[in-house]
Amino acid sequence: MCVYELIWGMQVLDDLDAVLDVGGVYDPSNDRYDHHQKGFEEVFGHGFSTKLSSAGLVYKHFGKELVAKELNVDEGHPDVHRLFLAVYKNFMEAIDAIDNGINQYDTDKPPRYVNNTNLSSRVGKLNLDWTEPDQSAERENEAFQQGMDLAGKEFLDTVRFYVRSWLPARSIVMECIGERYDYDPSGEIMVLKRFCPWKLHLFELEEEMKIEPLIKYVLYEDDRGKQWRVQAVAVSPDRFESRKPLPAQWQGLRDDELSKEAGIPGCVFVHMSGFIGGNKSYGGALAMARAALKL
Known about the structure:
Elements: H1 10-14, E1 19-20, E2 26-27, E3 32-33, E4 43-45, E5 48-51, H2 54-71, H3 78-99, H4 119-124, H5 137-178, E6 189-191, H6 199-208, E7 217-222, E8 227-232, H7 255-262, E9 267-270, E10 276-279, H8 282-294
Parallel strand pairs: 1-3, 6-7
Antiparallel strand pairs: 2-3, 4-5, 7-8, 8-10, 9-10
Helix pairs in contact: 2-3, 3-5, 5-6
């Protein structure tokens, strides 16, 4: 994902304080972080098996320090380790995989659509175009600096999101999971008392807390429309399919037509795929979720 690679003489590299992505050496004790050398198979660990890029190597050795600084706690704090893993899983691992040419899916089938909007692609687009008349080292350095600024900002934005938004949301979701039987005896309906990023937390906490049966619907208030939403939980974080979509006979209907079909007043809509619906009141949304469990 580098904008360009400049081949330094080994003597020049030996005099530098730190060397990244060149040199053919991985030696953290001397701040050498290359991954191109034969026999390199370093991974992040903690259950991750993707071979590291130089960026991943740097994160492996310095990520906890950065996270702890943003949290303003010691590196030994349990939240540091939790966020260290979350940032790797949701940001760094993709960079490692793309840099090492690792496909996202184990399949020979061609992708259904092209995605050139990931960070690696956007940094790559900062390379000098072959049609540009000025191909000087100065222009390459300018492009390289742009790439560093882009990647650095997105990395810090990601860390700060997990510190300021993701981590506080975890405790909210955990509490709501614990209260799920207060709303329905099935335990398959969760109500968010306060909207927050809940999806990734739900999957992880269900596994950690050994939740059975799995939660099928999550209710939360949409403050913008002063309505309540009923969202079907996906089968996994990276899939669109729902564990139990809202009933087929409701899908695509709105307002009075939907209320009549469901036998529940105040219905607003159900999406064509059944992954989400809405009601004017909390009671109506809960009634929709309860009815959907039985259909």
